[in-house]
Amino acid sequence: MTQDEIKKILNVGVLLSSERNLDRLLEKILISVMEISGCDAGTLYLLNQDRLYFTIMRNDTMKVYQGGDGERPDIPPVLLKRENVCALALMEGRTINIPDVANCHEYDLTGPARYDAMTGYHTQSMIAVPMQNRRGEKLGVLQLINAKDAEGKICPFPDEISLVLESVASQAAITIQNVRYIEEIQELFNSFVRVFVSAVEERSPYNASHTRHMVEYGERFLDYLNGKAENEGREIPFDAERCKELIMSIWLHDVGKLVIPLEIMDKQARLLPEQRSAFLHRMEVLRLLGQIDMLSGRESNLDALLKDIKNAEELVESVNTAGFVTDEKIALLGQLAERTYRDRDGEEKPWLAKDEYEMLSIRKGTLSEEERNVMQSHAVMTDKMLSQIHFSAELSHVREWAASHHEYLTGDGYPKHLAGDEIPPEVRILTIIDIFDALTAADRPYKPGMPPERALSVLKDMAEKEGRLDKALVETFIESRCWE
Fold first, then answer.
1. What are the CA-CA distances from residue 64 to residues 38, 60, 68, 157 (Å)?
2. What is the pTM of this model?
3. Cβ atoms within 10 A of the Cβ of 214, count?
4. How far is CA 478 from the centre of its chain?
5. CATH value at residue 437
6. What's the rounded mean pLDDT across residues 356-371?
7. pLDDT in tens, 147-193
8. Residue-wise over 443-469: b if at least 16 C-beta within 10 A, else e?
9. Which of 12, 228, 349, 475 has the most CB atoms within 10 Å of its CB?
């Protein structure tokens, strides 16, 4: 064996240990053994239940290269039966070397004959090498066709190549198994993430599709950013690992909402249900007191009182669910809060209680300052909850990015009040997508959803006028139409 051949064999180990994408790994395995053996064609089969599936195919003469992109060759699988050479090699755990297919009567070679009849190819020599790991678990088969000598003529596979190919096949089997284990662990982790998200969504009928929408927008936006960079001759900004890390951050950005009280998460109106009930009960008491006073001769203008009560109820109801409370309404609420009556015990009481007035005076939204602080604490809780997860190196930024999705470039976001360059591009993207979906969502309890174009206008104002969002990213987001 020449030094060049030995070098090729040693390089196989390096190639196998450095590749974690299964499709690329399988392609590298087949290419490596074809180079080592100097053959013209090869197939890598993977075992699934009782069948060997064509996974990677290469034929230099026929210019056939299939499977390296993850798309499996459209060829029926080989049954795990002894009459099939590749199946027999795997079943018996031994290499089968056939010097001359045409003159071999020991094995059923109708498969290669059919392939030759369909394609015009000529299969002469063949070797089938089983792949199994250290525990003897069968994984697949490497089948090589038409070895070539130094002059490029087809010849039998030399006996000494069998040991080399068996060594490579053993390494390959272990690496394939390890990659599969990694994929299984990743899928297990992804399933836990989906459980987290489902738990957040199931707690409330509102916000149910928020995270899933954001993931869809995020994936499309990242594809758009990469495509735009390629069209402009630039290096893509988000490779596969970086995309994966950002998408995982989107999946987990709202897990802190698991600990936010539902009465705050789902608050549809400014008044809590018990506050609204107390107010309406008080108005009914006022009606009854007015009627009693009239019957007792103490109240001469019951109609005016009933009209005032009705106006008070209409004012409170209109303010309670309004998107924004005007100065005029605030003034009317103040007048109502100053108005008093005496109950049956002669105690003076306000028409509108202090806590009710404070809630109804919330200018925008339905949450009081205290409730808003509780709601905003979900970002802190996201950070705290994700701190309990040991993320791999490839996902090392997930906790930081997920917990920072309410930070603004101007430093007036939360929870850490990051500003400018302290906010990485990934967080800037996450924030834009989060705001867009929050604005357009039709399932929020405190407001109707905006049309997309109006939401985009809000994003532009936040970027250009307020400086809170990344202007270039907002412009590119609008170009991408990734929500469609």
1. 17, 7, 11, 22
2. 0.71
3. 22
4. 21
5. 1.10.3210.10
6. 93
7. 999 899 999 999 888 888 888 888 888 888 888 888 888 888 888 88
8. ebebbeebeeeebbeebeebbeeeebb
9. 12
In contact, 474 and 432? CB cutoff 8 Å? yes
Cβ neighbours, 10 Å, residue 1: 12
Q: Are 169 and 131 in contact (CB under 8 A)?
A: yes
Sign of the dihedral through C-alpha 195, 205, 427, 230: positive
Q: Are 45 and 18 within one domain?
A: yes
DSSP 8-state secondary structure symbol assigned to residue 76: P
Distance, CA of 95 to CA of 313 (rounded, Å): 89
DSSP-derived letter for residue 405 is T
Residue span of the structural domain in which 37 resides: 3-180
Q: Residue 316: count other Cβ atoms within 10 Å of its Cβ.
A: 24
Q: Is the dihedral of CA 136, 140, 141, 142 positive or negative?
A: negative
- Using alpha carbons only, how large is the chain's radius of gyration in Å? 36
**CA–CA distance, 253 with 402 (Å, rounded to integer):** 4
Percent above pLDDT 70 for the chain:
93
Tokens in use for 109?
Answer: 């070679």
Q: Which of 343, 365, 387 is the last residue of a domain?
A: 365
Q: For residue 136, give both structure tokens.
A: 């003897």
